Structures are given as C-alpha cells and as structure tokens.
Request: fold
Amino acid sequence: MRKPIIAGNWKMYKTVSEAEELVKAVVAKLGDYDEVEVVFCPPFTALAAVKQLIKGTRFGLGAQNLYWKNEGAYTGEISPLMLKEIGCDYCVIGHSERRQYFGETDADVNQKVKAALDAGIKPIICVGESLEQRESGQTESLVRMQTEKALEGVEPSLVPQIVIAYEPIWAIGTGKSSDGPDANRVIGWIRDTVRARYGHETAQAMRIQYGGSVKPDNIKEFMDQPEIDGALVGGASLDPESFVKIVRYNQ
Reply:
C-alpha cells in the first residue's frame, strides 16, 4: 500500500527565522503522527536551518528546484550535490511557475529529474494543464506527454523513488480547485502512462499527488480517491494550523 505524502511548497516565502518558527509549530502539533509522510520545501536560504530542526525525525526536506550539473560556471544555480549535502530528501521539479516564468521546458525537466536521481534525491515532478488547454480538451494528452518526457531515459529501478504531482495550472493560487473525481481521473491517466512504460507493478508503487488550492476543507475529498496518494500544498502550507489540519485529514 502506498503511504500518502503531503509536501508543503513554500515558494518565495519565509525568511530563515520565519521558517524555523513555522517548522517548530508544525512539528510540535503533529507529534508522533505517522500516517502520512510530511515534507517541507522551503526556499534555498532556509534549507539548512530546517534540516537542523527535523534531523532525526520522520519529517522530510525538499528543495524547490535544482540545476542538472553538479558544478560549474552557472551563476545563481544550485547543484544536486549541494542539496544532497544539506540533507534534501526531495526536490520539486517542473512546477508550472518554473515553466511559465523561467522558461523551463520538458527537456529541462527531464535533465533535472535524472540529475536528482543520480544524486540520491527523490524528484517531485509537476505536470498539469492551463485553463485554455483544459477547456479545449487537451488535459489527457498534455499530462501524458509531460509524464512521458519527464521520465524519458529514467532507469526502471529508480521510478518508485519518483513522486508525480498533478497540478492544474488554473487551480494554483487562484482559490479554484479540481474536485476529487476529476483529479482522480487525471491522476489515473498519469499512472496509466507510467504503466505503459514501466509495467503494472512499478505504476502501482509510484505515489501521485494532487496540488492546486488544497485546503483543510477539501483535502479529504482528494485523499478519499483511490488514485491520489497525497498533496503538494502551496499557500495553506505557510500557516501551521492549516497545514497540520491537511496532514491530519483523516481525523
């Protein structure tokens, strides 16, 4: 059975001191709760501080991006080896904001996925459609294509380490969200794409999240769906009360 994974993507919020306050509050409220894997994804500047606070606990640490080279003259970039040394377990790759604002392509995403895996970091690969693409009936073809391109050349043995997050662009930061059955259907297409490439057992082992205006009052609807294995949470992860309620969706 796949263990649910709920990751908080803090985006460009929280200074180091604010990050420490947030993590302390969440850790204190969750105690020994172990039904869900919880991952914090703070900005680069707060990664080391957050790692110190969660060292020796069951909480995971994720970066929000990386570059696909281990070192070099790439001003402003962060390498997989740097993130690994800090103690990152995960890295968000291909978020729609990276694709939209910074021009990341499917080829870029693929290179980053392979670089993360080579460094022993588990990728959280984001896929999803815009409102225009959704309304023109392109959702299935688009998420299948994004999934295929992100996984191109990835060794089958490494695929179970990967998490995919279905994040419809039209639902990110808008207050709008997909409903449970609709998100479940799209995530089913993603899992079917993985199955076609790697086989049934591998597809069943992979965890696939939903992301896009996830809140305490809608998380259970998503988590009750058979294909959905967690959530990539944006704004609601910046408030400890909200994030804890999302993690404890079954209580």
Notes: The two ends are 20 Å apart (CA to CA). The longest helix spans residues 180-198.
